[in-house]
């Protein structure tokens, strides 16, 4: 049976090139100019993000890795419920390094679950569906490539088991708070009572520590941001000159917003397909928000969006939290 041995991937991004073009043009024709950081993750962006996760200043990955590697049994206990089979759905799975601790534990304990990683990056999904069955024999995996809620709908159509949705890595921080709230509400709408969400939030801490993570000394974050311009050049026929843009990051301890910008170093015209975008010197493109939270704000987010916070897991430094919410 050929299909049993093939990685299972569902790909819903048919019109993705057109949507990417429209989004980029709309963002760059807005005042102020902006680009959506969801487009950071092409194959090159995935690689730069890996480098970033290995760099000493970028702490969130290590904090969450500590939680998943040292508190695996407690995490598992929090999501297993009464022991019935469930679907473990991971939004923005990345390379699943952290969740693999949980997956291995569940497999070792012979818990019946399906693992459904969802990621916007097809290269990530292809990698996971090939790699995980090798490193975690016996895992039942189905990769879903596309936007989170489109794929959650697909996941719901595939089974009516209890769902546990992982949304780790402080990915929720890449939305402004109002959008994150709307996101959690929509997530709740895709779930039934008894389903769960495990969400990773980066916590407020020393502003210097936070800023350094988004302004690393090796310039990896700068390359990560500039890579989106390279991607636009390649995929959308753009002519950005990367030497004419610099990276600027700032953290506001009051609001908890850490923001990244690309600053135009000159008056310049950039062509993308049939559109021309004018930049004046020092004009910025707003690239990304990485919102930081207090524990109280995470609880408020749960109750404002129809969830009940049931447990939370922190790293030793208390820099990062994985919260478990019940729908
Ligand atoms: C994926 N996301 C949670 C990262 C973050 O920390 O906001 C993306 C990132 N951007 C710059 N560094 C890392």
What percentage of residues falls in helices of 4 or more residues? Answer: 40-55%
Structural class label: alpha/beta
Report strand order across the widest sheet. Answer: 1-5-4-3-6-7-14-13
> Low-confidence segments, ≥5 residues, pLDDT <50?
1-7, 10-14
Distance between the termini: 39 Å
Query: Rg, please?
Result: 20 Å
Number of strands: 14
Helical stretch tally:
12
Q: Which geometry do the CA atoms define?
A: globular
Order of helices and strands: HEHEHHHEHEHEHEHEHHEEEEEHEE
Indicate the proportion of strand residues.
25-35%
Domain Histidine-specific methyltransferase SAM-dependent: 21-325
GO molecular function, one term: methyltransferase activity
Keywords: Methyltransferase, Transferase
Protein name: L-histidine N(Alpha)-methyltransferase
Fold blueprint:
Elements: H1 2-5, E1 9-11, H2 16-29, E2 33-34, H3 43-54, H4 60-70, H5 72-80, E3 86-91, H6 97-108, E4 113-119, H7 122-135, E5 143-145, H8 148-158, E6 162-167, H9 177-189, E7 196-202, H10 207-213, H11 220-236, E8 245-252, E9 257-264, E10 268-272, E11 275-279, E12 284-291, H12 295-304, E13 308-314, E14 320-326
Parallel strand pairs: 1-5, 2-12, 3-4, 3-6, 4-5, 6-7
Antiparallel strand pairs: 7-14, 8-9, 9-12, 10-11, 13-14
Bound molecules: N,N-dimethyl-L-histidine.
